[in-house]
Amino acid sequence: MHKATTIFPHPPSIITSAAVGGKKEHEGPYGDRFDKINDDPYFTAETFEQGESQLQKQAVRIALEKADLKEDDIDVLIGGDLLDQCVGTTYGLRDYHLPFIGIYSACSTMSEGLLLASMLTAGGFAGRAMAVSSSHFCTAERQYRMPLNYGGQRPPTSQWTATAGGALAVSAEGGPPYVRGATIGRIVDMGVTDANNMGAAMAPAAYSTIRDFFEDTKLSPADFDHIVTGDLGKVGSRLLWQLGDNEGLDLRSTHLDCGLMIYDSDKQDVHAGGSGCGCAASMLCGYFIPELRQGRLKNILFAATGALLSPTVSQQGESIPSVSHLVWLSSDKE
Amino acid sequence: MHKATTIFPHPPSIITSAAVGGKKEHEGPYGDRFDKINDDPYFTAETFEQGESQLQKQAVRIALEKADLKEDDIDVLIGGDLLDQCVGTTYGLRDYHLPFIGIYSACSTMSEGLLLASMLTAGGFAGRAMAVSSSHFCTAERQYRMPLNYGGQRPPTSQWTATAGGALAVSAEGGPPYVRGATIGRIVDMGVTDANNMGAAMAPAAYSTIRDFFEDTKLSPADFDHIVTGDLGKVGSRLLWQLGDNEGLDLRSTHLDCGLMIYDSDKQDVHAGGSGCGCAASMLCGYFIPELRQGRLKNILFAATGALLSPTVSQQGESIPSVSHLVWLSSDKE
User: Fold this and answer.
1) B171, B203, B222 - which closes a domain
2) Res. A265 pLDDT band, cuts 50 70 90
């Protein structure tokens, strides 16, 4: 048996978090949870990619400010995004000149970053570690699908990449919420080849990790207020519930999906829901962490979900491997 | 002051490593150090990208076999590569179905992976952690520069992306070599915009990390057999020495660069040297680790170097940020 799950004997703290977004995210049901809204998709820069970098730069700066921390108070930045060679992150964070760990986990980046930040601080390798991620509708569309100007039709299973970002800092010492545990996800590929149906590709990965966590810990869904996935959307969420049903694991009652939270799917014309690294990152940093800090939520599992395809290999006919990393967040230390 | 450098009180062991390569790497000065050579750039697959995935799959399998380990003996795989969305890694490793941490650090991937594998095992979060990386001349050329069929001329400062891969496993218990310490690199961008001169872009990042290590540890270059960089090549290596000279740090005497080792630059028509994640990974796994294990080398610093650009942002006129992560490897535990 693999040691996929870690339970922290001394759970590290999430000492600050910040969420930033764009106009459409502001108009969604959690619009007032963003610390900063950017109405201009260029973020006053010249290209969408430069705009996405601003999301990360802003999220880190605001997260620092909210905890009255200086840049030098952070020992390591851990970040990634969806863009080729993760340039949203590297160009967004280069001005901070802090020790930097680059990660790639598609839309599961924020849970991988939080998981690593927790291990590095709990292991004594960093005093404070910051995790950050972002996505941008305009950079993702032209990279994965078509230039926006092409005006391509989006099929009903497609999801809308959020223009959003999130950053959080973890420390060995501090108040709630606490990172009680984490499960490192495995790559799961069930043969889905439709790059316009990410939810279906990612649901089995989310289920694999959630099941690993429950098997490893002997806990059950009833121990949690919510089991939160990243961006399964309408299609992937139903599949996740069914996968649970098949094995007698009730996920329906407690499940929330950030992709179904960030937009009003019916009114905002996003088809199957939201997606992108920034979707789960902003809902975690803007909503779930503050709710846990205030004690309005007690325990959640946060399992962001990532589809590990590239346009190149998709066009070569490959199926879509996916991964989902999970963290257990709690308002209590034990 | 940042805690960029970790010195492990109980240094973890590198218990196995494997290097795989292609035809040109076999013809280089260290050709006999590869555990497997693939003469076919397609690796009997249909596309170059599928070929690159085979490099990672092979490296992991051979590293396991050499230590008589089964797949299940590994708790976590940590991997990345240069391809958009790191598909060399995700498609190469999906069949292992092991807990997987995706990383992106361009050609510094192997030192970031080794650094994280060391921290996860030393921190007790994994029993055995495996780091893996690869690059492939044919996938990199068409992604970063031109389709091979175009037959573009390569300028004298350009480097040849190695078709190679490496994998290693780290454990809290075991024999030499030991991972004594690690320094997490900072992003450094000195304004170089020439995507055909990666050595110049990366040298300042390598210097920043090497200087951080010496400042943090109070050790000096004389304490090491070699200071090894990843793929600075001829141009970047000279710049690194000059940066050291400017501050009275003699790097010339002990410096080796994997990009200058893997090929015979004069005879093999590679201009400024080799490059790619697989260059540093294969020289580390095929040459340095075995030399340290045998005690023929006592102490080295391994600082692979990564240029964090993407073709998209390069074409937008952006300069090239770089990063270099460093690990201190030793034949002695203390």
Assistant:
1) B171
2) confident
pLDDT for the residue A2: 55
CB contact under 8 A, B321 and A94: yes
Instruction: Show which of residues 160-199 on chain B sit within 8 Å of chain A, judged by CB atoms.
Output: 183-189
Closest C-alpha to B218, from B245, B177, B257, B181: B181
Which comes out higher in pLDDT, residue A147 or B232? B232
Q: Report the C-alpha gap between B78 and B57 in whole angstroms.
A: 13
- Exposure class string for A204-220: b at 16+ Cβ within 10 A, else e: bbbbbbbbbbbebeebe
* A50 vs B: CB within 8 A: yes
Q: For B128-186, how does the pLDDT look when each residue is reduced to its tens digit (9 = 90+)?
A: 999 999 999 999 999 998 888 888 888 999 999 999 999 999 999 999 999 999 999 99
| Structure confidence by residue, pLDDT tens digits, B272-330 | 999 999 999 999 999 999 999 999 999 999 999 999 999 999 999 999 999 999 999 99
CB contact under 8 A, A104 and B103: yes
Is A67 a member of any domain? yes
Based on the domain organization, do B107 and B254 belong to the same domain? Answer: no
In this structure, which amino acid lies at residue B266?
Answer: D
Task: ipTM value, please give it.
Answer: 0.97
Pick from A90, A308, A126: which is nearest to B306 by CA?
A90
- Closest Cα in chain A to B102: A104
Cβ distance A124 to B123 less than 8 Å, yes or no, reads yes
Do A228 and A280 have their domain in common?
Answer: yes
Domain at B290, CATH number: 3.40.47.40
Among partner residues B2, B116, B189, which is closest to A75 by beta-carbon distance?
B2
Name residue A328's beta-bridge partners. Answer: A181, A301
Provide the domain limits for residue A158. Answer: 12-171
Number of structural domains chain A divides into: 2
In chain A, residues with a C-beta closer than 8 Å to the C-beta of B2 are 72, 74-76, 98-99
- Residue at A324: amino acid letter: S
